[in-house]
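so the lab meeting is tmrw and i was supposed to have these ready like two days ago... anyway. pasting both below. for each one the top line is the aa sequence and the line under it is the structure tokens. i havent really looked at them closely yet so no promises
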Amino acid sequence: MQIEKDLNRIKNLITLYEKKYGREPGSVCLLAVSKKQSIEKIKQAASAGQFSFGESYVQEALLKMVHFDNLKWHFIGPIQSNKTRKIAEHFDWVQSVDSTKIARRLNDQRPDHLPKLNICIQVNIDNEITKSGISLSEVESLISYCQDLPKLTLRGLMAIPKPEQHIDAKRRGFHQLSLKFQALKNKGLPLDTLSMGMSYDFEAAIAEGSTMVRIGTAIFGDR
């Protein structure tokens, strides 16, 4: 199956880039971005050993989830206030937290019988007005707020760079976020996830310290 071949190709590239840039073997995990992809394609990826999937649209994701057991679902899209309850009730991770309001709603709406909701704070490393995420200077304040929310587990930081940027520009943005991530860890924060890198730039992200790459097109083909 083509998806299995492409999935294995990406995993092999991740292993290659870990070695190329002096990373620990197995230090970079793969999130398969399945938004706008069919249930059949997700089944093929799961059958090939992929268990973590990323979705950006709540209603679409909920329709997919009922077909699967034991998969981990990450919400990676912009979060609207009226969608937080469904996200809190059904997802294992939320990578796009960018305000105290959203963090509070996710915490308050997380059902008591579920494990804590894993979250990453989305950082707008290019300072794009139209893109979600907070500035690097705002990260520590939001982290401090999230640490006091009992149903959330803060795992790390996430970023989406401009797709049209040159690879060197991407590396600069990734490098800035990686420095912030390491600085936070050096202060004693138990962070383990630096989510950056997609189909077109994950080599640069791994070079700069990413621990999770979010790959869609290179696995599933065009949406």
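ok protien two:
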Amino acid sequence: MKRVEGLSKLTGREKFVDDLLIDGALWGATLRSPAPRGRILDLRFGAGVDWSDFVVVDHRDIPGENAVRLIDTDQPVLASDYVRHLHEPIVLLAHPSRDELRRALLQVEVLVEPDPPALDFRELPRPEQIQYGTDNVLKHLRTEKGDVDRALAGAPIVVEGIYETGAQEHLYLETQGMAAWEENGVVTVTGSMQCPYYVLEALCFALDRNPDQVRVIQAATGGGFGGKEEYPSGLAIHSALLALKAGRPVKIVYDRTEDMAVTTKRHPSLVKHRTGLDNQGRFLAQDVEVLMDGGAYVTLSPVVLSRGLIHAAGPYHCENVRVDGRAMLTNSPPFGAFRGFGAPQTQFAVERHMDRIATRIGIDPVELRRRNLIRDGQTTATGQVIEDGVDRCAVMTRALDLSEFAARRVQHAIFNRTTPDRRRGIGLATFFHGAGFTGAGEVHLGSVVHVAGLPDGTVEIRTANVEMGQGAITVFTQIVADILGCEPSEILVAQPDTHRVPDSGPTVASRTSMIVGRLVEEACHDLMARLGLGDLHDRPPVPEAIREWHGANEKTELVGMARYEKPPGIHWDEDLYRGDAYGTYAWGAYVADVEVDLRTYVPTVRDFVAVQEIGRVLNETLARGQIQGGVVQALGWALTEECKWADGGMANAQLTNYIVPTSNDVPPIRVEFLEVPYPHGAQGAKGIGELPFDGVAPAVANAVAGALGRDPCRIPLTAETLLVLAEEG
């Protein structure tokens, strides 16, 4: 089916929050901390500004709890007497003129008595740097099976490695923005977000209101990638506080520099591997330690760490596995959700480690993977038995064939011997990604979807899942059209609005098509049952049946409903962190062909092959776009997107020196799908949105290793990094 939601964006008619014209609205802005940690001594408002023209809000104006409610409530809405990271919000201002706001912010001096900040998550904090618990550990998780110590002690081969990844800016096209107003006792907030019900819960907590006194409406959202999962909650509270005090609507929209400086980023990581093998290269033990930089507050670090931990041993079978993970507090702006959610960090490490093992023991890296990839009936690191019918070796083999892997390795060896100023390499990564929330997460969410029949015969899909460029509206429309036999023109998708749509959970974790799409299916069947309709081939058209139903049932809503129920056979132990971590996994094998210029050490990806098994492909155009987009975004993380830090803040928060790939940097990306339908996903689908991020960086790094004969263990692989690597030998 053709995409149904793109025309308004293509023609420029889509209205994002910055485009909304709201009568009488003021502009809002945020006064922030100039220090990474310390006690607020004073706020000095300059005499050159008539402050009576401004609405000023601080922590004393918060009617409820001064906390942004998420997993924890440790992060204040506005700092009261202490700051824990650079740019932490302290005071809010509102004024009719954005220019006057900007000038006014420069006339406020924040005096902070500094305390020693913790700025490096890799270093053991000194006593004076401890700010959370007794060790600055925001979250500690462990999963273990078998006897790792005994297996390592008896292993004839043990290979160790340390691998690091950097932060990454989301760089969604539309920056963060929210607008708020109060009308008839209801605070309404609209803006750019991924999780309307997260925002609703946070607003109710901070404003001390019931859900019927707060309304959250998702505006058109220009990209998210996880960056609009948790951060919009605080921004929504800020706009609401200003609106309540002003008695007028208030809109806050960040410019690009502010957005890059203050919002969440991908968690930096350090992963240590110690792997025991037999003489044939089969795994005997995997001992993995994962460290992540959580920043100054908990936010979503526990669940990012969780997914990273579960994926840290890779898509391989090993009887003895231990993965220990910690998210550390530092006095940096909090790190948060980003496409892949911790799995790209840990799978970069394990896939680089695979090639290091292959070099160490003198085995082909392809053969090493072939010997260790999980087969049906074997278990993951958490003890989950894999029985999905997928041939993971076949996924890898298809990627090798499509990329002509063996032939190119031979060609590159000849090229490298005969070309003095360039080197080429080809690299492989095999990986996996769990779809949906971890463990019992989906059960706790209890997502609900409605499919309504309207009086004119139109079908309306009501979910809280947002369209942010990924094609959710098209997929939902396609599912309903297939089941009900309607034309796409007879189907509407309701705007996410907490006063109109049920809580179907957040638009995260590759769950929209697989889990929410399945609920849309079930709600369609419930709608047909309420209409008394049978199979597609022996009933009247659904629009006609809906109109007839409303003719006989005036002033009554016709709504099919579905609530998430756990698939049978899923068992998860949250305390031991063992069992069925996800209902299913998607599987991938990626190959990167790279050339490094020895004069500049600039790496160029010449060709990229992406093969994945994702259940049934619902819409190949959208699926292909997800893979291609994910590959490009991950290439940036792997090669050029380096966050520079100074005093706990991003020092290169502008596009002049934070380098993202352009169209000139993108290689040919050849995408292929293998399909093994998942019985509990919408029409057999699995999640797809995050999978492509996991395999790109290790495939590229393995190719660079082949080109240079070096062992890159840290990304991004900038020219400067490769020059140092080459000089170190």
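from a quick look at the 2nd one: The longest helix spans residues 512-531. The chain has three domains: 15-115+178-254, 269-437+576-728, 441-563. will dig more after coffe
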